[in-house]
Amino acid sequence: PTPDPATGAAVKAADRAHVFHSWSAQDLIDPLAVAGAEGSYFWDYDGNRYLDFTSGLVFTNIGYQHPEVVAAIQEQAAKMTTFAPAFAVEARSEAARLIAERTPGDLDKIFFTNAGADAVEHATRMARLHTGRPKVLSAYRSYHGGTQQAVNLTGDPRRWPSDSGSAGVVHFWAPFLYRSRFYAETEEQECARALEHLETTIAFEGPGTIAAVILETIPGTAGIMIPPPGYLAGVREICDRHGIVFILDEVMAGFGRTGEWFAADLSGVVPDLMTFAKGVNSGYVPLGGVAISPEIADTFATRPYPGGLTYSGHPLACGAAVATLDVMAREGIVENAKHLGETVLGPTLATFAERHPSVGEVRGTGMFWALELVKDRETREPLVPYNASAATNAPMAAFAAAAKKNGLWPFINMNRTHVVPPCNITEPELKEGLAALDAALTTADEFTTS
Ligand code: PLP
Predict the structure, then answer these.
(1) CATH number of 67-330
(2) Most informative mutation of 58, 112, 144, 221 for ligand 1 (most atoms within 8 A of CB)
(3) Do domains 5-65+332-445 and 67-330 have the same CATH topology?
(4) One Pfam family name from the record (predicted)?
């Protein structure tokens, strides 16, 4: 398409005048005006094109504007754009069937929400009503969404301004060997000590007061920390022993991101409730939900579930999910994520760790990777402080600017860059992005002290 800077300027001006942006000081941001997107790329009105290593906010698992999904949305719009949630409609029934077919174990009932945060709200509500207990345990280094309960469950600084202190949330440490809270030197030690810590937290909080433990199967925004072997199974066992509902949040890790349909498939652990959103339809139309075990569904068999949404199971969003799941299966998109993760992305990032002094650790699976950027590989001091201010974030800002100059849009969170491209990225595209990332890391290297 022919770039049109004048349109871009108008788009930007209206944005600055009227759009109030998420998580931002409104006068300190400078949003790029985006003219279009296709596949793994997007472009602005000034002729700059970017390879998207962020998948939006880690949701475009099938890339932008997949023609078959766009056509299916158009068809669904022509057939039935919307309908109230109390009715049985084809797109909703079919989406629920296809999702239930893929979810782990016996999670066969689907409650649809508009996105991830409200899926977390409803999962925790279900757990509290099912158990009759008030508290929910969640991990530091986690993100569960921006609504009141979900942000209180979140274990990062985005929670602080909204902390109500009375939401019945207790935080604990999940395993993360690179920055171990347990003085562990091996995955085995980290796993055993993290499980002992959870067990002790439960004992001191009172097992009979705890409705649920919620964990991201693989924490996403907080740093893509794959739990050590045995950890999720251990949490499952602890929850079973105390009658606690185990909720896995697969909003970011689900639907192909890890090279499996769900991250839970990597460990074989089946939760009681599983939240999803994002990749279910690649965010083409907002959709999220909770997959529910028979036992919890039973609680609401004859007793009404006290919760709902006007747009629960919105036909247009569900139609997009049906088409997305269909395309993912037909094009082998989950397999692509696994294959390129194993053969290109993982091995190439490992060479960055060898060559770039700023790369402290590389970790991930499928199309779900994080690079921990550090000042010093010995001390593991982060390249920027935890929750850095604009004044202390200069090294990460310089790294991001270098990547963008090379045509790569990077995902940045604190001292990390996450490599989370669309799951259907091609090998040449992936290699192009990795070359740009490699070059940008030399900028990060300049801020190291070792
Ligand atoms: N849970 C996890 C693991 C997430 O990564 C996110 C969003 O990034 C959410 C919940 C919240 O989802 P949403 O922004 O769709 O409300």
Answers:
(1) 3.40.640.10
(2) 144
(3) no
(4) Aminotran_3
Task: Please give the pLDDT value at position 162.
Answer: 86
CA neighbor of 321 nearest in space, from 276, 368, 365, 367: 276
pTM: 0.97
Nearest-atom index, ligand 1, CA of 147: 16
Q: Find the 160 Cα to ligand 1 centroid distance in Å.
A: 17
Q: What is the pLDDT of residues 96-114, one digit of tens each?
A: 999 999 999 999 999 999 9
**276 neighbors 300 (Cβ within 8 angstroms):** no
Q: How far is the CA of 145 from the centre of ligand 1 (A)?
A: 5
Domain ranges of the chain: 5-65+332-445, 67-330
CATH topology of domain 5-65+332-445: Aspartate Aminotransferase, domain 1 (3.90.1150)
pLDDT at 126 exceeding the cut of 70: yes
Ligand 1: which residue has its CA nearest to atom 1? 144
Using CB atoms within 10 Å of the CB of residue 204, give its burial: 0 to 12 exposed, 13 to 18 middle, 19+ buried.
exposed
Give residues with Cβ within 8 angstroms of 6, minimum separation 6.
Answer: none
